[in-house]
Design goal:
By secondary structure, this protein is α/β, with parallel strands linked by helices. The chain folds into two domains: 115 residues, Rossmann fold (3-Layer(aba) Sandwich); 72 residues, no CATH class. It contains nine helices and five strands; from the N terminus they run E-H-E-H-H-H-H-E-E-H-H-H-E-H. Helix 2 crosses helix 5, helix 4 crosses helix 5 and helix 6 crosses helix 7. The longest helix has 26 residues. It starts with 11 loop residues before the first strand and ends with a helix.
Length: 207
């Protein structure tokens, strides 16, 4: 049974996910253009590593003063190096940041007072966040296309991108778990047309 998200306002959550380079952000933008609020888990996770967040002091306690720049802001390169080299440090950081992201997304969703809201979560199924969703969408795309897009977008080399893809669940698994799937292997115009049709279908089913 899915957990009920917001008891009084009955906001229905649409979870969207997809592998690196799949076009998940483009789908999120389509929802925004339909005036449906979108909450980005990655953006909130970045906010978590700032002094304004409610968990920043816990991150500093975990990594020590060495994790701060002279201006008091987090040294993200230092933190990234630490968690890359030590899985226990990564698990500890996730144990701080993940609950904060969930709390913040719940709070923002409740505050938006909208019938529908979108949660853009790269690790939607891996993290269990799909349990909060009325439905989920997986953006699917062939691996070679995703690699080319990501290399062009980020300036990453091919092996870096392949390693990131290997660290994620497969598109086959996403398709198995998602309520809906949408492929993004043609033109951006074709993808947007298909996305718009899917959004209208979901609106009819959930609103």
């Amino acid at each position: 049974m899915r957990r009920k998200l917001v008891r009084d306002k009955m906001t229905r959550i649409i979870g969207i996910t997809g592998g690196i380079g799949s076009g998940k952000s483009t789908l999120a933008q389509c929802f925004s253009e339909h005036h449906i609020p979108v909450f980005d888990a990655d953006e909130i996770a970045r906010f978590a590593l700032t002094p304004e967040s409610g968990c920043f002091s816990d991150v500093v306690d975990l990594f020590g003063a060495e994790a701060l720049k002279p201006d008091g802001m987090p040294d993200r390169a230092y933190i990234a190096a630490k968690v890359f080299a030590d899985k226990s440090a990564l698990d500890a950081l996730n144990g701080i940041v993940h609950p904060f992201v969930i709390r913040e997304m719940l709070a923002r969703t409740e505050a938006c007072a909208s019938a529908l809201a979108v949660w853009d979560v790269p690790l939607l199924f891996e993290s269990g966040v799909d349990a909060f969703c009325a439905c989920t969408i997986a953006v699917l795309c062939g691996e070679e296309i995703r690699i080319a897009r990501t290399m062009q977008r980020d300036g990453s080399d091919e092996e870096q991108v392949r390693a990131r893809i290997r660290a994620q669940i497969s598109d086959e698994k996403r398709a198995e778990l998602a309520t809906y799937t949408i492929r993004n292997e043609g033109t951006i115009e074709a993808f947007i047309r298909e996305a718009d049709a899917l959004i209208e279908q979901i609106r009819e089913e959930l609103e």
